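Sat 14:20. Reprocessing the chain from the morning session after the first attempt stalled halfway. Input below, unchanged.
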Amino acid sequence: MRLYLTALKPTDSVTDGFLPAARALGCEVTILTDRPERHPHAVACDVRDPRALIDAIEQLGRPDAIFSNSDHLQAETALAASYFGLPGKDWRACVAAKNKFLMRRKLLEAGIEQVRSVRLAPGDPVPEGLPYPVVLKPREGVASEDVLLVERDLAGAVAEVRKRRQGEALVVEEYLEGPLRTLETLGDGSEVRVLGGFETTLGALPYFVEERLDWAPPQDAGREHVLGALRALGAGFGACHTEYVLTAGGPRVIEVNYRVVGDHCDFLLGDVLRVPLFEWILRVHLGERLPAMPSAAGHGSAVSLVADRAGTIKEAPGSEFEVRGDVRVWHRPLRDVGDVVSLTHTNRDYLGVIRAVGPDRARVDAAVEEYRAARPWVIE
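Finished this time. Tokens:
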């Protein structure tokens, strides 16, 4: 079986997740990327252009599957898969999920939910009279970059973000207050199954940095609302990671990420469910049906170690796995000793990630705190 994987920069999800899974399934893998120097044995291709992608694949050899885990390449990859008659996502759903303004419009038109949202193209005047607080975000942003809670002076906030994002559209929408949750789903083209969900802990406002995700099976109301939203968007194939808020007026979608959950929670999801998650995702792209869904085993947490100051990293734990009592703990460094840290108030401030799985939350929490105390990150 021949699998083409489209990618931009290298990620742990691909390097340590999808590539080993593809080998386990007996696939011959070709990585197509615009950064071939950063991927071993990759083929150079303008992966942001579906025409170039289709042309490169036709030249290299007919595929059995075309897949991407990149936020930025879902529509292009879906178009290529469709061209070759392969299982894949609807490119229109990929566009609507990625574009936060289009997502709001689709959900409004379908009668799923109504959230105030205004699109600001480059040069558009900032609207007056919007009720505060509001959230300002890039229309197609990632990693919480330039996402801000604005309680006054929207014009000033827009001007600051536009300095960093010249030529990009922004979105202003109402602030949705309440507990933040995720729903993790996987579809094979015939049905969509819920894998589970997480409770998200954010850092201090006005920024929206995700500091921790804890396993939290979704309640019926949130589950059904999100599944209805995904149906309205047409997001029913492959992995999907949806963030939503349990507001006083009911669940409201924050964003739909049409790929598997990131920041090492994909590995955590597989650990908690005790399944080869990356293989499952690739299997549906190879045309297979979903297997029976297991129940979760205990509790899992992914704790992002966020820099609290600027400076140089003097000490840091390495990539480690250890067992603390009946809790399994993994640490994955994302920065190196000697790196200079500049605070951005985004997910780019992560130093490392601790992943832990155990019988219950109390024991997982204790193991995480013990590890952090024994293996500190030192910034001076």
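The chain has ten helices and 21 strands.
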